Amino acid sequence: MEIAATSTVTVAPQLRRYSPAFSRTIGSLPSLRFNLSRRNFSAGSPTLRVSAGSISAFAADKISPESFLDKRESGVLHFVKYHGLGNDFILVDNRDSSEPKITQEQAVKLCDRNFGVGADGVIFAMPGINGTDYTMRIFNSDGSEPEMCGNGVRCFARFIAEIENLQGKHSFTIHTGAGLIIPEIQDDGQVKVDMGEPILRAEDVPTRLAGNKGESVVAAELVVDGVSWNVTCVSMGNPHCITFGTTGGQNLRVDDLKLSEIGPKFEHHEMFPARTNTEFVEVLSRSHLKMRVWERGAGATLACGTGACALVVAAVLEGRTDRKCTVDLPGGPLEIEWKEEDNHIYMTGPADLVFYGSALLSL
Ligand SMILES: N[C@@H](CCC[C@H](N)C(=O)O)C(=O)O
Fold first, then answer.
1. CA dihedral in degrees (197, 201, 204, 207; nearest 10)?
2. Known catalytic residues?
């Protein structure tokens, strides 16, 4: 299968003032051709396009985000790139079908940071089921399909507001592999998400580690590459293994971790039959945590929303923090609260549009 991708990129509104409109050819391979061009939608302003090494300038036409996404050429995938604290996604308007518009193999190519658009995953906005407004599906950058994505669902909410032309405060009911998720866009543009209840039963996480606190795995020993780590296992629909350090060791200093060495060993550990996301956490205070993440199917990312939720649950279960915490991720902070009243976890953070693009998909 071949993807030829041509990306027309529109600078996000907040960047328009600072980013000169430009375009460039960023790569060309037999299996994946990718042209990137950036357009400035401000009427009348000049836009540059670089094609096959040459640069030409043309006046911006009357394109708007809406008309761009409305295009329906066959074999062309229109998308919008978003990020939540640097955890970045290609968002696809899939509201007219319950089948993803691209395959998992195509998603892998689009996510490639050298030969594709570059992203941690592809997210599809699909028709709702069971009475929900929408369904969200996601492919990781390795093509696998996770049940949920916390940063992704904030991006999803902003994407829906963009394509439905909604302003101000709005909430949506979204069907995901983790059940019902409810994001609400706030007046300041941040998105607060009701992430539902954590799943703690070992078998459901899933982990083969034996439950040591009822059926949950809390501060249990996991030997990874000959080193004994203290881990707590939590599912937010997708599996997470949270560690605050090695058994009997000092508190972790996450900046010192060799994440790309240790991360894959947790991800593929035999104790995690569905693989796992892993959060390495440093406790700064009872309401402030710092973490680095190795994601299942995506590797080291700048942020993980489900991971931030899972680690607050783990920190509370291990008696390390209160239920409301700021979690510092490499890409910035998230506010997380595990409410006692309803047992739900609430996550608040940003989601930002980066650019509009289109990819030519050919078999
Ligand atoms: N970055 C996401 C999680 C994406 C899915 C994850 N890689 C998995 O396979 O479970 C988030 O923000 O939650």
1. 120
2. 149, 304
Q: Is the CB of 196 under 6 A from ligand 1?
A: no
Q: How far apart are CA 225 and CA 328, in angstroms?
A: 27
CA atoms of 101 and 123, how far apart (whole Å)? 10
Q: Tens of pLDDT along 56-66?
A: 223 334 445 66
**Nearest in space to 345 (alpha carbons), one of 236, 239, 201:** 236
Give the angle 126-128-134 at the CA atoms, nearest 5°: 60
pTM over 0.95: no
| Among the listed residues 204, 212, 274, the one whose alpha carbon sits nearest the alpha carbon of residue 221 | 212
How far does the chain reach from its first CA to its final CA, in angstroms? Answer: 5
Q: Best substitution site from 122, 294, 304 to test ligand 1's pocket, by max atoms within 8 Å of Cβ?
A: 304
Q: Chain-wide mean pLDDT for the chain?
A: 85
Which stretches of 247-298 are assigned E, i.e. beta strand?
Answer: 277-285, 288-295
Can you tell me the distance from the alpha carbon of 259 to that of 356, in angstroms, rounded to the nearest whole number? 32
Domains of the chain listed by start with CATH number: 2-196+352-362 (3.10.310.10), 202-343 (3.10.310.10)
The counts of H helices and E strands in the chain are 6, 23
CA of 327 to the centre of ligand 1 (A): 16
Q: Is the CB of 151 under 6 A from ligand 1?
A: yes
Tell me the Cα Rg of the chain: 21
